Amino acid sequence: MSQTTTTDAPAQSGATPGDLLRLLRPAQWAKSVFLLIGPAYGYANHDWNPRAGWPALVLAIVAFSLASSACYIVNDVLDAPADRKHPRKRNRPVASGRVSMPAAIGMAGAMVLGAAIALFAITAVGSLASAVWTAAIVGIYVFNVMAYSSILKHIVIADVICLSLGFVLRVLAGCAAVAVVPTTWLLNTTFFLAMFLAFGKRLGERRFLGGEGATAARGVQAGYTDDLLRQAVVVTAVVTLMTYSIYVQSQDAKYMLGFNLLWLTILPATYAMLRAIVLLERGTYDDPTLLASKDRPFQLGCVAFGLITLALMAARQWHAIGVSPPAAP
Q1: Residue 46 has what pLDDT?
Q2: How far apart are CA 213 and CA 222, in angstroms?
Q3: Concatenated DSSP letters for 42-110?
Q4: Helix (H) and strand (E) counts in the chain
Q5: pLDDT value at residue 3
Q6: Buried residues in 60-72 as b, exposed as e (16+ CB within 10 A)
Q7: 170-184 residue pLDDT tens
Q8: What does the pLDDT read at residue 117?
């Protein structure tokens, strides 16, 4: 098997099952957790019954995961020349030559077919309206990714907005699958958090590869500077935390037991956000996804946020909290 050390296309060789699995980027399926956010908060607000709605939600997650894999494959095919200049991305199945272009396109088609089957199955376990709305959102997601891969990834700021919209669409798909209406704060928090992750990735790349190396691997980096990205990372982090803080404040009457217990979730959220900034600024990681999968303190912050939130939601369902305090004399 040949190794890629230049920007020229490597010789093609037979793909192994492991190569084909890597092509799908199953680690990226973790992003489908965003489909759970809307239903989770809908459950806390008594807007959704998980006992009846979970099959449709699972099918929506499967559909979105498969559709995202198809988009990643197409992006890998288009980005193969640039990926060969990146110290890590050059080992991707297409860029390295372990998976041929025709095989990659065939896998993308199979993923699209699988996603379509999962979306159609929603009609059997949910409502036709939920299936149609979910399918429409998945279709918009695919169009958005294709627009990014072909045009928008070359345009400063537009590239980040396009990527962030993908996370918002995941939230909307989860809500559509179970017929939960998303709130404005949920969409805003998701959007700004996704922008933070995208700007953080670009900053991490510049720290990890240097300015010229980052530009060689991602052309749009020529339009960014270190100072601009640092400011963008800090601004989006602050806006994300402020947006979530406003939501927490609005829940005073629902999670009250002496004080608003939901405020406790702000502590791990702030820690995880600021730790990500520190590690990206240092260049320890060039991708927030890689950071999330390897950095234990960051993972601890995220787990603490999730556990506290879920515990408070469950307690509210059991009516252990949520009683307004007596009026002040």
Answers
A1: 65
A2: 10
A3: HHHTT---HHHHHHHHHHHHHHHHHHHHHHHHHHHHHHHHHHTTSTTGGGSHHHHTSS-HHHHHHHHHH
A4: 12, 0
A5: 40
A6: bbbbbbbbbbbbb
A7: 999 999 998 888 889
A8: 95
Query: Among all chains, which residue has been given the structure tokens 């997601």?
Result: 141
> Are the beta carbons of 205 and 286 closer than 8 angstroms?
yes
Residue 256 phi, psi (nearest 5): -90, 125
Going by the DSSP 8-state scheme, the letter that residue 158 receives in this structure is H
CATH superfamily name and code, 16-182? UbiA prenyltransferase (1.10.357.140)
Q: Does position 83 have pLDDT exceeding 70, yes or no?
A: yes
Q: What is the CA radius of gyration of the chain?
A: 21
Calculate the alpha carbon distances from 33 to 44, 64, 108, 290, 315 in Å: 17, 10, 22, 16, 22
Q: Which of 41, 40, 35, 37 is closest to 62 using CA atoms?
A: 35
Q: Which tokens in the block code for residue 230?
A: 């640092």
The single residue listed with the structure tokens 């009516």 is 319
Read off the tokens for 47: 């807007």
β-sheet bridge partners, residue 256:
260
For residue 260, report the phi and psi dihedrals to the nearest 5 degrees. Answer: -70, 105
Give percent above pLDDT 90 in the chain: 46
* Helix, strand and coil in the chain, % to nearest 5: 80, 0, 20
| Number of CB atoms found within 10 A of residue 29's CB | 16
Dist. CA 39–CA 194, nearest whole Å: 19
